[in-house]
Backbone:
C-alpha cells in the first residue's frame, strides 16, 4: 500500500500546467511495458482499446471483473503509476460506485478517468448528480488512504461536432470543473475540445489541471503546453495506430510480399 500511495503522489505531481505529461494509452501488460521501455512517465488505459482488444464494444460491456484483472496485470508489469479508464464507474448509484472504486484500488490502480456521460443511456448527468457521484468515489478512495487521482471527464464537447462548439458549451464546462473540483476531482478531461481559445480559457479558469485529447483539428503538443494544458492523452488513437500497423504487416504476409525469415 505504501508503494501505491507513493505512486499516486508521483502521478499527481506529473500534472503541471504548461508542462503536460504525455499519456500514450495502453490496453494490456505488453503495451504498458512497451510504453515504459521508451520512457513513459505514467501508464493509463483507454476503455475503447481495452474493450476492443478483448472482443467487446466500448461502453462498459466488458465485465468489470475482466477490467480489474487486466489492470492488475498491468500494475504488476511496470514500475510506474497506473491509471484506469473507469468510464462511468460501472454503476449509477453512489454505493455501487464506492464499492467498485475500492476494487479498483485493490487492483493497484492509483487513478481513474471518470466520465459524466450516461453509459447505456442518453446525454450526460446533470452537474449536481455527477458531482455527487465524484464525491462518493472520493469518499471511498480516501478510506483506503490512497490519494486517488480522479480525472473527471466531461462529454460536453465529445457529444457534438467540433464545428458546433460554442461559448455556452465552454461556460458549462467551466461550471462543471468547479463543481467537480469541489466534489473531490483531481483533474479535468475535456475530450474533443479543439478550439485553442476555448482551451486557453478553460485552463485559465480551471482549478484543476486540464487534460486534452489528441484529436483531429486540435492544437499540437507544443501549443497545448503554451495554452496551459497539464496532460495530453492519445485515447483510442494509440490502439488504432498499432492495429493498423499489424494489419499492414499481416496483409503483406498473407499476400506473400514478405519473405519468411
Residues:
Amino acid at each position: 500500500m505504501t508503494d501505491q500511495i507513493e505512486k499516486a503522489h508521483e502521478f499527481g505531481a506529473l500534472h503541471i500546467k504548461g508542462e503536460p505529461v504525455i499519456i500514450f494509452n495502453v490496453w494490456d501488460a505488453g503495451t504498458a511495458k512497451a510504453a515504459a521501455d521508451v520512457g513513459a512517465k505514467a501508464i493509463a488505459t483507454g476503455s475503447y482499446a481495452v474493450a476492443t482488444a478483448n472482443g467487446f464494444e466500448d461502453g462498459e460491456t466488458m465485465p468489470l471483473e475482466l477490467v480489474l484483472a487486466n489492470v492488475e496485470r498491468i500494475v504488476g508489469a511496470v514500475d510506474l503509476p497506473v491509471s484506469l479508464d473507469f468510464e462511468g464507474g460501472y454503476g449509477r448509484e453512489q454505493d455501487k460506485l464506492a464499492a467498485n472504486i475500492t476494487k479498483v484500488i485493490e487492483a493497484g490502480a492509483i487513478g481513474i478517468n471518470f466520465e459524466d456521460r450516461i453509459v447505456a443511456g442518453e446525454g450526460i448527468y446533470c452537474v449536481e448528480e455527477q458531482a455527487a457521484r465524484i464525491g462518493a468515489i472520493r469518499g471511498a478512495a480516501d478510506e483506503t488512504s490512497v490519494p486517488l487521482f480522479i480525472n473527471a471527464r466531461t462529454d460536453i464537447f465529445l457529444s457534438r461536432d467540433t464545428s458546433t462548439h460554442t461559448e455556452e458549451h465552454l461556460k458549462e464546462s467551466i461550471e462543471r470543473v468547479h463543481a467537480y473540483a469541489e466534489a473531490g476531482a483531481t483533474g479535468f478531461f475535456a475530450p474533443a475540445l479543439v478550439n485553442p481559445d476555448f482551451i486557453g480559457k478553460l485552463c485559465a479558469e480551471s482549478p484543476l489541471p486540464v487534460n486534452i485529447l489528441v484529436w483531429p483539428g486540435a492544437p499540437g503538443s507544443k501549443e497545448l503546453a503554451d495554452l496551459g494544458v497539464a496532460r495530453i492523452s492519445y485515447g483510442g488513437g494509440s490502439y488504432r495506430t498499432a492495429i493498423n500497423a499489424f494489419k499492414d504487416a499481416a496483409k503483406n504476409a498473407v499476400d506473400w510480399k514478405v519473405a519468411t525469415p
Q: What stands out?
A: The two ends are 47 Å apart (CA to CA). The chain has one domain: 2-250. DSSP finds ten helices and eight strands in the chain. The longest strand covers residues 111-115.
